Structures are given as structure tokens and as C-alpha cells.
Amino acid sequence: MKFILDNIFLIGIALISGGALLLPLLQRRGAKVSQLQATQYMNQGKTLILDVRSADEFATGHLPNAKNIPLPEINNRLKEIEKSKNAVVITVCATGVRSSNAVSVLNKAGFAQVFSLEGGTEAWKTQGMPIVK
Cβ neighbours of residue 25 under 8 Å, at least 6 residues apart? Predict the structure, then answer.
């Protein structure tokens, strides 16, 4: 007991840092797909590629046939993509963080199969996959 009282500050720091390391694992960010899986879905057809980056980022290069709806506007523009509720939707951003948030929004809106592209457009480019400007 004396050890715990003498080292309470260090024990607190250890617990907080451990919790901070586990936090990303505990957060549910939705399903992810690799570049290969995304390509397979795209080749099968009836797949919506939803780029949630800003219009300026989208203009610098995007996946083929991608539709751009920035993440802050997605709730207001759901009607534009409502016909894809039962199709596969792959959300894309620069690194995969914003697209994971978009997966949550679309799941709540009733979309059946929504995935986030792992690594976003940066990983897509690194794999030598096609980009449209």
C-alpha cells in the first residue's frame, strides 16, 4: 500500500497513457477495404466511390468515377446519393480518417454496405492505382 501511495503520480500516468494507446482500438470507425478489395468492388459495378475531401483537394486528383461531397456537407446532401443505399459505397479521403467518419454517418442514414478506403488517396497513389484530375 505504501508503494502505491508513494508512486500514485507515476501509476496515474501509466494508466492514462495505456488508455490513450487503447482508445483507437476501442473506437468503432466502420469497415475498411484495401486498395485490392476496392478495385474488386469497382470492377463488379454498382459501386459508389464517395470522396469526402474538400473540392480543392478533389481537384488535385481523385479515384475514377468518384463523387465529391465534402464531409461537413454530407448530412445535407444525402439525397444526392440515396439511390446507392443498397449498393456498395466506398468513402475516400486523403489518409482514411475523414472517410471513416463518413462511414459512421452513412451507416446511421441507412446505407447497407459502406466501407472506408484504407490509407485514402495517398495509399492509392502509392500502390500505383489510377488517379483522375
Answer: none
15-42 tens-digit pLDDT:
888 777 776 655 545 689 999 999 999 9
- For residue 123 the three cell numbers come to 495509399
Q: Which residues are catalytic?
A: 93
For residues 115 and 31, is the Cβ–Cβ distance under 8 A?
Answer: yes
| Cβ atoms within 10 Å of 72's Cβ, excluding its own | 10
Sign of CA dihedral 98, 105, 71, 65: positive
**To which H or E segment does residue 23 belong?**
helix 8-26
| pTM tops 0.85, yes or no | no
- The answer to whether 49 and 42 are in contact (CB under 8 A) is yes
